[in-house]
Every structure is written in C-alpha cells, then in structure tokens.
Amino acid sequence: MPVDPGPVAPSKPGRHFGVALSVRAGVGLGLAAVLAFAVPAVLIRMSDFDEGFRNGTARATCTITGCGPGAMAFVGWLLPIILLGYAITLWLGLRHWSTLTRICWLLGGFGLFLAGVPFFPSPGGPALTAMIDAPNGVDFADGLRWGAWTAVAAVIMIGAGRVLTRLRISERADAVLGFAAFILVLVSGSGVGSIATVEGNELTTTRLFPEQQVRVGDDVLTWSSGTDFDFDGCRDDFPNCLRALEFDFTTTDSDAVVHFQVVQFIDEWRAQGAADDLADDTGDPASLRVKNVTNRWLVISTVRHADGRAIADDERKWLRWPAAELDYAFRRSVRYNVGKAPTPSDTIAPKS
C-alpha cells in the first residue's frame, strides 16, 4: 500500500524574494563596476591628461634608457606584461586574502587600468605609433602593441587550460597551457627588440638629414659637409657628451652660413648643464651663436656671413633666422616636440 507522505510544507514566501534581490544586487553591482571604469576612462580621453601622460611615459622611458630603439620597444612591451602579471596575481590570491588586502589590490588594479587608458587607440582615430610624440616613439608603440597581443594570447591559453580542466577533458591542461603561456611571454620578451625600426641607438648625420637639402617653408638649407663624432671626439668640448654631429649649411634666404652642431647627452639635465656652461657670445664680431636644448640634445648654431665680415647690429635678426629653421628641422627629424615652423618676430625674421 502506498504510504501517505503527509502534508507538504508550503514554500517560504521570502525565499523567492531573496533570490530576486540577490540577482538585482548582482546586476546593480555589475553596472556600478562598469560605470566606475567607463566614466573615468571617458573623462581621461577627453582631457589633456590623456596625451600628456602618454607622451610623458614615452619620454621618461627615453631619458632612462638612452632612447635606444630596442630599449624603447622592450619597455613598451613590458607595460602590458606587468598588467598581465598583476591580473594573474589578483586572480590567484583574491579568494585567500583578507578583506583589506583584496580592497588594496582591487584599487591598485583600478589605477593600473586607468593608467592604460591613454594608450588605447580610439576607433577610427590615429594609430598608436602616431599618438606618441617622443624620440623613437614608434619603437615604444610597436613594443606596446607586441606586449598587448602577447598578454591577450597568454590569457586565452590560461583560460582554455582552466576550462579543459574544469570539464575534466584533461586533468593536466591547466598546468600545461599555463606553462606554455609562461614560455610564450619569455620568447616574446626575448624577441621584442627585433621589431625596432632602427638598429642601434645612435643619431648620425645621414639619419638626421638623409637629404642634403632641408626645406623649411619656402627656404632651402643645404649642407655641404657632415661629420659624426663619438664620445672620444666630442668630450674635449663637452665632457659628458655621448656623441656629436656637425654640419655646415648655406641658405637660399641670405648669404648666411651656419655651423650646426647636435650634441647628445644621456639625459636632458646634462644637456641643459652643458648649454648653461656655453657662453651666449662667441667672442668673435663676425659670428653669433644660438643654442637650444631639446630633450637630451644640445643644438648649437654658429652663424656668420659667407664672406666673413663683421656682423652689424641690424643684421643679427635675419642671421638668426636660418638657426631657428635648422632647430625646427632637427626637432621635426627626431619627431620630438615639433611644434610649428618658426615665424617672424622681434628677434628673428627672414631677410628676403
């Protein structure tokens, strides 16, 4: 005979309400998290901080590494790899840490995410290589892109390993694919220097001005000689220099001839110190000197008349003009703080 189970207890009315409340709370927290990331990211992209932080990071890398293409590419590659390592550490430790430790690591991850926002190209916007204004910024951007794709591939491999292990398709997939992701990062880091667009970190005469004629606006400046000096050749005049380039230019604007020097130092502070030690006056009535510091380079123009005659006071204005044009051409060539071509003012102006 069938046994009567007796009366069945009705479901508690608050049970379904609690489930619904938990779902709503989860959705609300998810939306709050999305907004917490999206709103600051949008504000950063709309502000001047976006460009300033991106270029500042690349220029600081240049100062620290000496601007070598391989070094710039490696540091660019390292940035997304640091994010990858942080994310993996956070994922592994989140369940085991105290509440305070979790909060600190989550806040740190939030800060790293915001720091990475300026490096994401906008849809339909310029490529990353065109967004970074720094010496060898192209190599920095290429390394950043290389590192980002490496990080994405590593995440896919680790995620696939976790899924295969959870589904019991392969008990070792987690360990094998995790180790493979680690090897991928090592190989990628070893090969990142090969993507540098220029071999060596030296600025040479032919790299600076590949063509003998340098055009700035309507003027053409032509160099008749160019000489490269290593640190042994330039340290008699500049004790802390790394190397120096020297050119002799003529211009279509006037009879001015310019002895143009570019002296490279390890950082901007040493370049500025050398500029401060160099007198503004040449001590020769037939020549004048114009000097500027651009990042770690000291740029010096010594201008005189082609016939060597003394410079009159009313001639200084237009003799400084080719010096300003060459300084602009230099910045344009190294793609650093290019700005606009020189315009006439109270102190410089073309003769013609």
Taking all Cα atoms into account, the compactness measure Rg is 30 Å
Low-confidence stretches: 197-201
Major beta sheet, specifics? 6 strands, antiparallel
Q: What characteristic shape results from the CA principal axes?
A: elongated
Helix content: 40-55%
Number of helices: 11
Distance between the termini: 119 Å
Would you count the extended β strands for me?
A: 6
Query: Could you spell the SSE succession in H and E letters?
Result: HHHHHHHHEEHEEHEEH
Q: Give the class from helix and strand content and strand pairing.
A: alpha+beta
Mean of pLDDT: 80
**Strand fraction:** 5-15%
Strand order of the largest sheet: 1-2-3-4-6-5
Looking at how many chains there are and whether they match, the oligomeric state comes to single chain
Task: Give a brief description.
The chain is α+β, with helices and mostly antiparallel strands. 52% of the residues lie in helices and 14% in strands. The chain has helices at residues 13-46, 49-65, 69-93, 99-116, 128-131, 137-166, 173-191, 205-208, 231-234, 268-277, 316-334; strands at residues 213-216, 219-229, 243-251, 256-264, 287-294, 297-305.
Notes on the protein architecture:
The chain has 352 residues and is of the alpha+beta class. Helix content is 52%, strand content 14%. It contains eleven helices and six strands. A six-stranded antiparallel β-sheet has the order 1-2-3-4-6-5. The longest helix is centred in the N-terminal third of the chain and has 34 residues, at 13-46. It is elongated, with a radius of gyration of 30 Å. Mean pLDDT is 80; it is low at 197-201.
